[in-house]
Design goal:
alpha+beta; nine-stranded mixed β-sheet; seven-stranded mixed β-sheet
Length: 478
């Protein structure tokens, strides 16, 4: 007499005892057999106690531990086999947490598609952690390895935290202290000009655009895909090509919003503007650091069309208090950049001593663009203080074109043409004329002004506000 309940077939065609579809009658149901052969396909429950451990506190040796971190790199090593129960491949996943430590997870698979992406939060349960094999390719600081096969071993498991990821865990870069520069971090331009030779170099870039996913077959007959991602920072632009399963990561990125911190990247020797990812590279998506917020605001600002001649309220900055103060702070361009990045929400004023190395007075005069404004969303230019809008026929009050002054420099940096917001009082102090007087001036006077101001050092009273996003020039001291 059997202790197991017989599994009744609902298919009338399976009634023959001698038929090929006959049950083996070994006492186990089909669900139990499938659960034993492929435990990862079913809800997994740990059989023992697993200790929650940070990756930085892992110790090589046996012991049931549970760790959590984010995927910073992974690649697939296919191992095709004709055996029905053999592993079909191995995902080599690099996982990092807030301690900055990295562990390499060899994730074997047979039927399960884990659909990994860069930046995903994952949890790993494993009964053993070992040292990396001598001579094996590992990432920097990755000296520990764990090998798991959840489809065959009930003592290990790999879980992608898609529903419970709130975006706050495991996002701190290694060695980052709030308010301090991250070691090895460089601009994209410096990286392209030789910084790629620096050991453990890092770049912080923002996604500009994402190309289409191209599918093709390799020479060995394996299907694969690639995606080209254009990236940039405030100094340069480049392109990253994602290959294989990593290409699926780009589907979750947002142009002008997603920021990538790439450690130890490489440059394509044939194309200097192409960044390549290797087994020694790791990519952190939207890391928790102050420069990420600044770069994201910078990217957002590029998507907005600048006003051709922005006009600020007179009471935005307290010009009188600063001009009559006994203490007057002289900044350099580097000081302003550091303070604006360090305290982006702070409004401050001071003085700046710069040299004018470019003027466009005659060029703008010849192009009928000495003064400008906007009406109906369309720029309006003229060599006049007032003109009519071609869209609505309304009279428009024009102000001096901010591109009249070219590049300004000091000992630490420069400001490009048209990147300043000028108050009317500042224009009158610099040129010695109002807008009405300037447009009525002769060409000889305009040439004299251009020659007089070129390579002249001037002291500017400026104001900075995140709301404006540019330096506002309040007064000019000759």
């Amino acid at each position: 007499m059997s202790f197991y309940h017989p599994e009744l077939s609902t298919d009338k065609t399976k009634g023959s005892i001698n038929g090929p579809s006959c049950s083996s009658s070994d006492g186990f149901t089909a669900q139990e057999i499938e659960s034993a052969l492929h435990p990862v396909l079913h809800k997994w429950q740990p059989r023992g106690k697993y200790e929650d451990v940070d990756i930085g506190a892992l110790v090589p040796g046996p012991g049931c531990v549970a760790l959590i971190g984010r995927v910073v790199n992974f690649y697939d090593q296919a191992t095709p086999s004709k055996k029905p129960h053999a592993a079909k491949g191995c995902l080599k996943v690099i996982v990092k947490d807030d301690t900055g430590a990295i562990v390499k997870v060899r994730l074997w698979y047979a039927k399960v598609d884990y659909s990994l992406r860069l930046g995903q939060l994952v949890s790993v349960w494993t009964p053993h952690v070992s040292n990396a094999e001598p001579g094996s390719v590992t990432l920097q600081n990755s000296s520990l390895v764990t090998t798991i096969f959840p489809e065959r071993d009930n003592s290990c498991y790999f879980l992608v935290q898609e529903q419970s990821d709130d975006g706050t865990l495991c996002r701190t870069p290694e060695g980052y202290n709030n308010g301090k520069q991250l070691a090895g971090l460089m601009t994209l331009k410096n990286f392209m000009e030789g910084g790629y030779d620096v050991t453990a170099g890092k770049i912080l870039i923002c996604v500009k655009s994402i190309g289409g996913r191209k599918r093709f077959t390799t020479k060995k007959g394996y299907p694969t895909a690639k995606v080209d991602v254009n990236v940039f920072d405030d100094t340069s632009e480049a392109m990253i090509t994602l290959w294989g399963p990593v290409a699926a990561s780009a589907a979750m990125w947002k142009p002008s919003h997603t920021v990538l911190l790439i450690s130890n990247p490489r440059v394509n020797s044939e194309r200097r503007a192409m960044i390549s990812l290797t087994a020694e590279t790791h990519v952190e998506v939207d890391p928790d650091m102050r420069d990420v917020d600044w770069l994201r605001r910078y990217a957002k600002g590029l998507t907005k069309r600048d006003h051709v001649n922005q006009q600020l309220p007179e009471d935005m900055f307290d010009v009188e208090e600063v001009s009559t103060s006994e203490v007057r702070i002289l900044f350099t361009l580097a000081d302003i950049d550091e303070r604006a990045r360090g305290s982006p929400n702070e409004k401050f004023m001071g003085y700046l001593n710069v040299m004018i190395i470019g003027l466009n007075t005659m060029r703008l005069y010849q192009r009928n663009m000495l003064c400008c404004a906007e009406c109906c969303g369309v720029p309006v230019y003229a060599n006049a203080a007032r003109t009519k809008c071609k869209q609505c026929e309304a009279e428009v009050l024009l102000r001096i074109n901010p591109r009249l002054v070219g590049t300004l420099i000091d000992e630490t940096g420069s400001i490009a043409c048209g990147k300043l917001v000028w108050y009317t009082e500042a224009w009158e102090q610099l040129l010695g004329h109002t807008a009405e007087e300037l447009v009525l001036s002769s060409t000889q006077l305009l040439k004299y002004l251009e020659h007089r101001l070129l390579f002249l050092r001037v002291t500017l009273m400026f104001g900075w506000s995140e709301e404006v996003g540019k330096l506002a020039i309040c007064q000019v001291k000759m």
